[in-house]
Amino acid sequence: MITPVRGVLFDLDDTLFDHNFSTNCATAALRGCEPALAVWSLEELRLRHSELLETIHREVVAGRLSIDDARRERFRRLLTDAGATDDAEAVGRASAAAIRYREEYQRSCRAVAGAAELLTALKNRKLRVAVVTNNLTAEQEQKIKRCGFGGRIDALITSEGTGIAKPEIGIFTAALAEIGVSASEAVMVGDAWDTDIAGALAAGVRPIWFNWRGHPPRETAVAEIAALTPLDKAVAAICG
User: In the chain, what percentage of residues exceed pLDDT 70?
Assistant: First the structure.
């Protein structure tokens, strides 16, 4: 007998919040105002920036870098790789680039298509909803507010707040405790296999891979959705 779903855990970035859109907008704006970055095509710049973002963000999650220092370091490395001299001028340009990028990132904040409607539908079914995210609490609270998710999310569980990061089991058990459901009564929806899906499996939570990038299937069979729309299909995938 299948246990009815009582709670849903969601990743935030690129699952409910359209982080990919904001980073692309911000990267394009930055390339237009920082001449050194024009050495690369926009697509190559996006790729390089994405790789640096992932690498340096691990230092933020681990508490070894502040988010502001991480942003400056990200653009210092980009400018250095682009051929800008690594001197006081380049450091100043990196700081200016970080500010410009951040302004455009915030200006372009938006929800993933269908996210607000999905959250509303789940709340209408009396399900408990938590966001489980590897990031700083204030940063993620701001995204939730900008996306208009207020009232649709019962708990925000962050790596900063718990001192534990996905895929560690502890952050999932903390989220389950916060919304008062057991692992067998919960579903985890996320886009990142190594953190969201692997972590949910280890915690005994049924995962749903939000595979909007169209990655090939993994060896472990897991239910997938490619979009949060149409609403009825997304709800059916989560609720069974």
Answer: 97
The greatest distance separating any two alpha carbons of the chain, rounded to the nearest whole angstrom, comes to: 65
Instruction: Answer yes or no: do 117 and 62 share one domain.
Output: no
Q: Same domain, yes or no, for 103 and 123?
A: no
Q: Which domain holds residue 103?
A: 19-107
For residue 136, give every residue at least 6 positions away whose Cβ sits within 8 Å of its Cβ, in sequence order, or none.
60, 67, 158, 160
Helix (H), strand (E) counts: the chain: 10, 6
What is the pTM assigned to this prediction?
0.92
pLDDT tens for residues 199-239? 999 999 999 999 999 999 898 889 999 999 999 999 999 99
**Is there a single domain that holds both residue 47 and residue 161?**
no
User: What is the number of domains present in the chain?
Assistant: 2
> Do residues 103 and 142 share a domain?
no
Across 24-35, b (16+ Cβ under 10 Å) vs e yields bbbbebbbeebe
Beta partners for residue 183, in sequence order: none
CA 160 from chain centre, in angstroms, equals: 14
Residues 208, 178 contacting (CB under 8 angstroms):
no
pLDDT at res. 92? 82
